[in-house]
Every structure is written in structure tokens, then in C-alpha cells.
Design goal:
There is one protein chain. Helix 1 crosses helix 3, helix 2 crosses helix 3 and helix 4 packs antiparallel against helix 5. By secondary structure, the protein is an all-alpha fold. The chain is built from 7 helices and no strands.
């Protein structure tokens, strides 16, 4: 009976860790939150192990359902970002690129190499392993690091006139 209770509490802790990681929390922040919530010391290493175990234990159908839900949410956000860009809000470009990168990761288009090559970058990010980079590169949209100005725009776009 005690073993069942322990297994249940571990499963609950693993699920909470995955949910917090999916919200963007670092492994260290999750460890602090779980320590407060459970009253037991939880290390960031334990959090990473919990997330990896949960990902392996979850039925494939559940993972696919969650992935499809997240892809639908990303598609909605991408549509909104595209509308903002079309309306002249160039700040939306940064958001669009991040959304597209995230979508690629969910689809497994950005497979990592090395010892964790059986996991997508999303899985590695969730588990806190691998070197996953979510940073924005301003040169992708023609921004210089020095002046944050967009380079190589035709004259009518430099004057704020967009089609």
C-alpha cells in the first residue's frame, strides 16, 4: 500500500514537472516550486529525470494528442502574427519566427545529433538535456546588431509606405 502511494506521488510530481516545463520554466525553477509544493527537497537533476521518465511512460497516443493540440494553438498564433505583419507591425516578425521555430520542433523537423538523437529538440528541451537554442537571430530579417535598423529596404518601405 505504501509503495502504491509512493508511486502515485512520484507520478504526480513527474506530471507537475512536465506541465511547468511546458510553460517555459527552467529546471531550477521547477525544482524550487516542487520542493515548496511537496515539502520534500527536489533537485533540478531529479526534475530532468522525472520529465524524461514521464515522456517515456506516456502512451504514444497521448503524446500525439498533446502535440496536435499544441500545433493547432501555434497555427492560430501564426495566423495572428501574419495579420499583424500585414498590418505593418514589424515587431510581429520576431514572434512569427519564434512560432515557426517552435512548430518545427514539435514536428521533429529539428532533430538533434549526438547522444540524445532519439529525442526531438522539444523533448530534449522539456527534459533539460541537449543544447537547444531558442534565441532570435536579428540577421534573419535583415537587422544589424549595431543599429537595429532593417537593411536593404526599397525606398518606399523606408518611408513607411507598404503595399
Amino acid at each position: 500500500m505504501a509503495n502504491t502511494a509512493k508511486n502515485t506521488s512520484v507520478a504526480i510530481r513527474q506530471k507537475m514537472a512536465v506541465e511547468m516545463r511546458a510553460k517555459g520554466m527552467s529546471l531550477d525553477a521547477i525544482a524550487v516550486a516542487l520542493t515548496k509544493k511537496t515539502g520534500q527537497q527536489v533537485s533540478s537533476k531529479r526534475v530532468g529525470e522525472d520529465i524524461r521518465r514521464w515522456l517515456r511512460a506516456v502512451p504514444k497516443e497521448d503524446v500525439d494528442t498533446v502535440r496536435n493540440l499544441e500545433l493547432h494553438r501555434l497555427d492560430t498564433a501564426i495566423t495572428l502574427a501574419m495579420r499583424a505583419i500585414a498590418a505593418g507591425d514589424l515587431k510581429g516578425i520576431d514572434g512569427l519566427i519564434k512560432l515557426q521555430e517552435r512548430r518545427s520542433k514539435y514536428l521533429g523537423l529539428d532533430q538533434a545529433s549526438g547522444s540524445n538523437d532519439t529525442y526531438s529538440e522539444v523533448d530534449q528541451w522539456l527534459a533539460g538535456v541537449g543544447d537547444v537554442d531558442f534565441e532570435f537571430d536579428p540577421s534573419v530579417i535583415g537587422l544589424d546588431d549595431d543599429d537595429n535598423e532593417i537593411d536593404d529596404l526599397p525606398d518606399d518601405e523606408e518611408n513607411g509606405e507598404l503595399d
